[in-house]
Amino acid sequence: MTLLLKSSFFPKPEIVAAKVPRSQRIKYVKCGYLPPSGKWNIIEEDFLNDNHGVKLKVLKRVLTNGSESSLQKLYMIDAMQRLNIDYHFQEEIDDFLRKEYVIYSTSGDGFGHDDLHQIALHFRLLRQQGYHVPPEVFDKFIDNRGKFNERLCGNMKGIRDLYEASHLSIVGEDILDEAEQFSKKVLKEMLLGNCFDNHEAKLVTNTLQHPSHKSLAMLTGREFFGDFHNMNNNGWLGSFKDFAKIDFSWQQNLHRQEIHQISRWWTELGLGNELNYARNQPLKWYMWSLACLTDPTLSEERVELTKAISFIYIIDDTFDLYGTLHELTMFTDVLSRWDIAASEQLPDCLKICFKALYNLNNEISTKIYRKHGFNPTHSLRKAWESLFKAFLVEAEWFASGNMLHSEKYLNNGIISSGVHIVLVHIFFLLGQRLTQENVEIIDGFPRIISSAAKILRLWDDLGTAEV
Hints:
Residues 268-466 form the Terpene synthase metal-binding domain. By secondary structure, the chain is an all-alpha fold. Helices cover 59% and strands 1% of the residues. The chain is built from 18 helices and two strands. A two-stranded antiparallel sheet has the order 1-2.
């Protein structure tokens, strides 16, 4: 996998394919061919109508208005993020939070006040933006027992924001672990004690079930169309909600177009008919891409990522349900060499699958090359090779009936989960190169890929349970 780091040294991809014809007619696609449908800009229509554009300009002026207090602007940013419209305001958000961090850094007493609600909100928004605010800002709320002061229990807004802030903890930040336990306990007790009106109860329930840092605003945004920070009569909040409703409709239309593109690609590819043992779930594959690349402006990248994800499922089903151990060994060997000629010796289903993946890999590489100026062909091939080899290890394991040692299973599972395939494609589709200079290598893998894959593998195998 260390060869993953060679992407920037390769010239233009050798071959390109727009789609794979059905059945036995799937052919090796020759160099230099890219049909008009393969161009990068899939959706060319204006993504905002005139009315939407006017509202956007007005809201940008509201956010940059110097007459608004810092707390009001924090509320605005929080509202925009929860309503899933913050991608329109990234420059303004970056500028404001940068200034807030400078003020915090030069203040002798943290945020300069003792308001739990404001401190927790400041802490969360700055950390989400990548600024390291130490957890010691909450020390002032700790009693002599090392616990959060019980007198905070009546501060519903503060407790709710403390709970939200606690989800941005990192290893070793015990005070934030304590903050999560304390705030969660208080909020649940207040719910059971009927301490809230209907709207507050719904807001607290949503917070406990879907803390903002661990949720997708596209799925939870409509839950925040009611009162927010007790500011239902505020003019800018109403404007944000109106804008969010229009934007939500536009995003729905965009996602429908993307699903249509994926469905058309999958139908024309023909693998659903040829590989009748494999899952035929293009909508499910698209949902993975939608969760990974939530920014509405990344439409092209979501479509291409979905294509790669579909092959993770197809290959997984091929190893689990179709091939014999001998056939899968041949399949892996051909893939390792990326040899079109050698693929002719494979059974028809495996040959079709290999050629389809071969063509897709080069099609995606060409698009990345044209948009970002580097060719990831070699790196993507090595990533797929590692997946095939990991699947083969598991096939040999099941065939022999011998249980793998837990550590070996986990190390192999990091690859067989397919997470590294997804992450590598995301990096390249976003124009990020994986080089020795910008990633840390752990056991042959970039740490950011290895760590995420390990977490998701454990999540998949062990499941989740509410503590």
